[in-house]
Amino acid sequence: MIRAGVRWTTQRIAWMAVLMVWQPGASLAERFESAGDVHGWLLGHQRRPGKTYQGWVKAGIKWSPRLLALIGAHLRTLIQTVATAGGVWTTEGWVLLGCDGTRIDAPRTQSNEAAFGCGGKQKTTPQLWLTTLMHLATGLPWGWKSGKADASERDHLRRMM
Predict the structure, then answer these.
(1) pLDDT tens-digit profile of 21-55?
(2) Residue 88: which of 134, 133, 138 has the closest Cα?
(3) What global pTM score does this model have?
(4) Which among 160, 144, 135 is positioned nearest to 84, based on CA atoms?
(5) Is 126 exposed, middle or buried (0-12, 13-18, 19+ CB in 10 A)?
(6) Sheet holding 140-147, edge to edge
(7) Which helix (H) or strand (E) holds 19?
(8) Residue 147: enclosing H or E segment and its boundaries?
(9) DSSP of 107-121, one letter per residue?
């Protein structure tokens, strides 16, 4: 049950994200409008989950940590189920995971420089540090952590463990 006045739930945010991928439109706001129409049609009598693209983005930012945790846990369950059924969950009795980190360049904006910082040489663009844990037999991501340009791959790995 949705509380009075609360329109964006984690499920609605996720549905709109999926629907927006499939909508035509020159802008994200146009895709949002089209996705909202489809969302309303799919759920029948329910009203639109939200009125504006900006509201959806704000709700997504608020709920992103929870959504990512839920999606990550669900994907790990699916990977384990499918890999077990396919006989590749373990190798010689071990679950093999690999870990690697990388820096990803971000656009040079004041907000990105403040949020991520610059790693390495002077005058580089802002960078995000991404550490990924992979299930080696399937080649699928098992977990991930991101941080500032000077984040520690080792620290990310410890937190994922």
Answers:
(1) 988 888 888 999 888 888 878 777 566 677 889 98
(2) 138
(3) 0.68
(4) 135
(5) buried
(6) 97-105, 127-135, 140-147
(7) helix 10-21
(8) strand 140-147
(9) ---HHHHHHH---SS
Q: Tens of pLDDT along 119-141?
A: 766 778 899 999 999 999 999 99
**123 vs 100: CA distance, rounded Å:** 25
DSSP for 44-89, please give it.
Answer: TTPPPS-S-HHHHHHHHHHHHHHHHHHHHHHHHHHHHHHHHHTT-S
Question: Rounded distance, CA 7 to CA 39, Å?
Answer: 13
Collapsed DSSP state (helix, strand, coil) of residue 129: strand
Helix (H, G, I), strand (E, B) or coil at 95: coil
| 83 φ, ψ (degrees, to nearest 5) | -65, -35
How many alpha carbons fall within 13 Å on the CB side of residue 51? Answer: 2
- The helix (run of H) or strand (run of E) holding residue 100 is strand 97-105
Closest by CA position to 128, among listed 109, 144, 112:
112
